[in-house]
């Protein structure tokens, strides 16, 4: 057996907790095939002695790995690598260099952009709105953010830095995100790998414009985020739709497509797929990364609500794994703070970011430097972390409260699987009840329905218990009249 300590590098100066470093080292060894399915791992005392750490640290690492399905723990007996991990060909640690993060340029083809220095009609807001998964602005630290924003507008240095070179994002926010993304998502990047955008939608558009063209092919889930599909279609690319089941997008189907034709990119929402909220399994994550390398396609990873997970720590993004620069990682602060606060980011190889910045400047010369620097201060002061801790607890309670309401009042009409995280539940109507027959009125509105799936998204995060009760009871009254 390969000495397990050869696969685990502990950096006590890193801001990433040691138990997470151990867990990441073991999961990486499993991905590479060094640790095979069913292999018995050292006990907690033995591994703690080998790594010279406290036993509780190893216990925490194993618990984390079990929560993410990497290992199976049999109490007082042994810990083994999960049997559900696919059999991989072992790689030599001495001779194999796995590029983790964005240290190298992208070698895949993408469109080069020359950097040239050149209505909604008003409507009545319904009394009850079931959104598709928005945060509760009433809980958001907007007051603290705006206080810092106002302060920045009265300081000479802050004024200068907020109005200089914001096309890629202010240096202060990008540098802050380097640490923040490392601590929260395990991403290995620099400020040069980050582009600040007006939300995840802008990031998707920029990536699509560079990666796709007439005749290109991109694989998406079915069902999928419809606005993303529209963006991809606008490039002239062909959309190839692959089924999304309870384990996420079907990577076996992706492989079959790749064997037959050239694929330029795959768009995936691995954490909580939109709209169905399912999480991409460990096996499929590994396979998708392997397929990306084998068939040379980019992965556009949309991680719009990474921060909300209730039963265990969330799976780390695909972008935190070895991917040789093939993953374009997209995130957003709109799901944390306020949907109207358009603040997102893209993480990618530097040469790709340079071109995205050039394209962005053709339509938007820069972002709101004051707001970006105010957000950086919010992160640095720990305010965002405190808010997320409070919001996660609140949204968890609201999810469970809604679950109780649905079981009590709507179980005869609907079916659903309670998601482990996120801000919405994907609900299907039973046979005999059609989502298309539910009418939008002046007092009731559902933001995201799908006639083909006969389903809708019930966003719970933005509604308190009184509002959730009111929405469910009104929905029940509508269903009884169908």
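-> sequence recovered:
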């Amino acid at each position: 057996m390969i000495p397990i300590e050869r696969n685990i590098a502990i950096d006590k100066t890193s801001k990433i907790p040691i138990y997470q470093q151990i867990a990441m080292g073991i999961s990486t060894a499993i991905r590479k095939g060094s640790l095979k399915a069913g292999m018995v791992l050292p006990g907690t005392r033995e591994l703690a002695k080998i790594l010279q750490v406290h036993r509780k640290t190893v216990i925490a690492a194993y618990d984390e790995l079990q929560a993410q399905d990497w290992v199976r723990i049999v109490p007082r007996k042994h810990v083994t690598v999960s049997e559900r991990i696919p059999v991989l060909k072992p790689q030599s640690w001495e001779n194999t260099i796995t590029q983790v993060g964005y240290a190298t340029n992208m070698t895949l083809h993408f469109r080069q952009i020359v950097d040239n220095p050149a209505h909604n009609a008003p409507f009545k807001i319904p009394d009850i709105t079931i959104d598709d998964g928005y945060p509760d602005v009433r809980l958001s630290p907007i007051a603290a953010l705006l206080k810092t924003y106002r302060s920045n507008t009265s300081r000479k240095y802050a004024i200068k830095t907020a109005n200089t070179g914001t096309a890629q994002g202010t240096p202060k926010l990008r540098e802050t995100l380097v640490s923040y993304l490392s601590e929260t998502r395990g991403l290995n990047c620099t400020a040069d790998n980050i582009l600040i955008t007006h939300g995840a939608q802008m990031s998707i558009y920029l990536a699509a414009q560079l990666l796709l063209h007439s005749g290109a092919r991109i694989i998406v889930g079915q069902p999928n985020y419809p606005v993303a599909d529209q963006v991809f279609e606008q490039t002239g690319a062909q959309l190839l739709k692959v089924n999304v089941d309870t384990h996420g997008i079907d990577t076996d189907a992706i492989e079959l497509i790749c064997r037959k034709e050239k694929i330029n990119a795959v768009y995936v929402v691995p954490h909580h797929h939109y709209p169905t909220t399912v999480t991409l399994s460990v096996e499929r994550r590994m396979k998708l990364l392997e397929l990306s390398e084998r068939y040379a396609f980019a992965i556009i990873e949309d991680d719009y609500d990474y921060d909300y997970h209730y039963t265990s720590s969330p799976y780390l993004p695909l972008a935190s794994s070895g991917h040789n620069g093939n993953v374009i990682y997209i995130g957003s602060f709109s799901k944390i703070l306020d949907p109207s606060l358009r603040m997102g980011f893209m993480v990618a190889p530097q040469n790709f970011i340079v071109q995205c910045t050039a394209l962005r400047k053709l339509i938007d010369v820069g972002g709101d430097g004051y707001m970006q620097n105010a957000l950086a201060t919010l992160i640095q002061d720990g305010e965002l972390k405190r808010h997320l801790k409070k919001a996660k607890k609140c949204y968890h309670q609201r999810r469970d409260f809604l679950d109780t309401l649905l079981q009590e009042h709507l179980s005869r009409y609907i079916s659903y699987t309670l998601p482990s995280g996120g801000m919405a539940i994907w609900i299907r109507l039973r046979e005999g009840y059609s989502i298309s027959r539910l009418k939008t009125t002046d007092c009731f509105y559902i933001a995201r329905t799908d006639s083909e799936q006969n389903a809708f998204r019930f966003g719970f995060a933005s509604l308190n218990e009184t509002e959730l009760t009111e929405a469910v009871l009104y929905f029940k009254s509508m269903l009884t009249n169908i």
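The first strand starts at residue 40 and ends at 41.
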